[in-house]
């Protein structure tokens, strides 16, 4: 009983700390003086490392996975006689649900773990203390560029994944349904729901925000011992996956309402 | 107090950070300022290296230049022989300080008494 209570308190405290940090970051994001030359340099580097460097691998995986997914879904729709719902499935399920989810999983595996470790190593090496010694605001210099980059990356890469999926859809709709490009595009446009797309974009932004904020939060919790690195990385990554699931559920609830 | 270089950034970015952050100096100008400062210490070659790739002397000079980038800098060097344990005397440190003497207003070196012999005549 005592253990359950302690764990509950620990998780509640951690939850409150993350939201407090999120508030501080959001405040700094909207302050013009945050964007000095140093912060801009970090932001550009982060965008390059997260969004540009990953492109070849991301596009390759998107084409392979996207084609496979579209092929299976289209074939299933045909077999079940649900061809009439093909547009709704493509936009409502694949574009607004699976694309952001797949993108966030890829970016989490590649970048969140890297950010978590990077922050933990910086804390262990006393590099964070160095910044404080030189009056460099850690939130402005380390957090804001990474979090803005997280939001931009997830939104753009998710859009790219959707484009690749819809591109594959042209091919598969022709092969499976014998559908022309014009008809295919017409069905897509008619199935697109503005509110669903807005929710999908907001979901991507929330994914991007939390899959960078949470690893940073846990990374900064490292002590000055090397052995604390795997502990904070593990806790951080588990929390990131929990956050992804929570955001996914919240977006579904919003859609239903 | 340990103030190590930021290990995931190149030396020039570590040194330029102060100018870029506090004076909002554009990146290109900050890079040029850092390269000129490194040139004075004959260390331009380390500009694009990272902390783990540096020798003890190179690391010391990078930290020294970073400290000198603070406006009207008062540099405090805490136990320099901890950073460069193989040095037999303080000459290298003084030579480095002389080469950039216009970049700082004062410099103080603190060390343990038992290191006095390394400072020679400076510690009677």
Give a quick account of the main beta sheet of chain A: strands, pairing sense, barrel closure: none
Query: Biggest sheet of chain B, strands in spatial order?
Result: 1-2
Shape label of chain B: globular
Helical content band of chain A: over 70%
The H-and-E topology of chain B, N to C, reads as: HHHEHHEH
Features:
heterodimer, A: 257 residues, mainly alpha, 9 helices, 0% strand, elongated, B: 124 residues, two-stranded parallel sheet, 6 helices, 2 strands
Task: Characterise the protein shown here.
The complex is a heterodimer of chains A (257) and B (124). Chain A is mostly helical. Chain A has one domain. Chain A has helices at 2-29, 37-52, 55-79, 86-124, 127-133, 138-177, 181-191, 194-219, 228-256. The longest helix of chain A has 40 residues, at 138-177. The two termini of chain A are 37 Å apart. The mean pLDDT of chain A is 90. Chain B is mostly helical. Chain B has one domain (11-122). Helices cover 46% and strands 10% of the residues of chain B. Chain B has helices spanning 11-23, 27-40, 56-68, 80-83, 91-99, 116-119, and strands at residues 73-78, 104-110. In chain B, helix 1 (11-23) runs parallel beside helix 3. The two termini of chain B are 26 Å apart.
């Amino acid at each position: 009983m005592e253990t359950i209570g302690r764990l509950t308190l620990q998780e509640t405290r951690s939850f409150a700390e993350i939201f407090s940090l999120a508030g501080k970051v959001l405040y700094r994001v909207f302050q013009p003086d945050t964007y000095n030359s140093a912060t801009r340099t970090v932001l550009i580097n982060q965008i390059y490392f997260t969004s540009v460097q990953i492109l070849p691998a991301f596009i390759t995986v998107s084409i392979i996975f996207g084609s496979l997914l579209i092929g299976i879904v289209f074939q299933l729709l045909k077999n079940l006689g649900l061809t009439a719902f093909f547009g709704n499935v493509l936009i409502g399920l694949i574009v607004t649900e699976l694309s952001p989810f797949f993108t966030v999983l890829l970016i989490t595996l590649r970048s969140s773990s890297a950010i978590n470790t990077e922050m933990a190593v910086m804390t262990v090496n006393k590099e964070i203390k160095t910044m404080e010694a030189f009056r460099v605001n850690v939130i402005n210099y380390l957090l804001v560029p990474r979090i803005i980059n997280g939001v931009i990356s997830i939104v753009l890469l998710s859009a790219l994944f959707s484009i690749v999926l819809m591109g594959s859809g042209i091919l598969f709709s022709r092969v499976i349904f014998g559908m022309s490009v014009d008809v295919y595009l017409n069905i897509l446009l008619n199935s697109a729901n503005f509110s669903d797309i807005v929710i999908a974009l907001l979901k991507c932004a929330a994914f991007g925000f939390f899959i960078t904020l949470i690893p940073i939060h846990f990374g900064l919790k490292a002590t000055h011992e090397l052995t604390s690195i795997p502990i904070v990385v593990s806790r951080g990554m588990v929390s990131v996956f929990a956050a992804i699931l929570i955001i996914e559920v919240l977006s579904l609830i919003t859609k239903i309402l | 107090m340990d103030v190590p270089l930021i290990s995931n950034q190149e030396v020039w970015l570590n040194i330029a950070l102060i100018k870029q952050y506090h004076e909002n100096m554009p990146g290109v100008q900050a890079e040029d300022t850092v390269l000129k400062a490194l040139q004075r210490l004959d260390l331009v070659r380390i500009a694009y290296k990272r902390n783990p790739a540096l020798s003890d002397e190179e690391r010391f000079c990078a930290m020294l230049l970073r400290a000198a980038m603070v406006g009207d800098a008062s540099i405090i060097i805490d136990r320099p022989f901890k950073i460069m344990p193989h040095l037999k005397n303080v000459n290298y440190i003084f030579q480095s300080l002389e080469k950039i003497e216009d970049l700082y207003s004062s410099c103080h070196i603190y060390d343990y008494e038992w290191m006095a012999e390394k400072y020679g005549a400076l510690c009677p």
